[in-house]
Amino acid sequence: MTCRYCLLYELGHCRKTNPYPKDKEPRYLRLQNGTVLAVEFDCKNCQMLIYGRQ
């Protein structure tokens, strides 16, 4: 899934406005039901990519 909402931007770590060194990616989100999602950031296109992880 691709979305324009970016967690880095919300946390104040936007790489376009505040260049930080690229961290290890992908990062992971764990939902309350135990589902784990991989998250990658495409800062050039200002998008966040979310992948289901098995």
Mean pLDDT: 83
How many helical elements?
Answer: 1
User: Total strand count, please?
Assistant: 4
Overall shape: elongated
Main β-sheet description = 4 strands, antiparallel
Strand order of the largest sheet: 1-4-3-2
Global Rg:
11 Å
Based on the model shown, name its key terms.
1 helix, 4-stranded antiparallel sheet, mainly beta, about 5% helix, elongated, about 55 residues, about 35% strand, 4 strands
Question: What's the arrangement of secondary structure elements?
Answer:
Blueprint: E1 2-3, H1 7-10, E2 27-30, E3 36-42, E4 47-52
Antiparallel strand pairs: 1-4, 2-3, 3-4
What does this structure look like?
The structure is a single chain. The chain has 54 residues and is mainly beta. Helices cover 7% and strands 35% of the residues. It is built from one helix and four strands, in the order βαβββ. It has one helix at 7-10; strands at 2-3, 27-30, 36-42, 47-52. The protein has a four-stranded antiparallel β-sheet, with no helix packed on it. The model has no long low-confidence stretch (mean pLDDT 83).
Give a brief description.
This protein is mainly beta and 54 residues long. It is elongated.
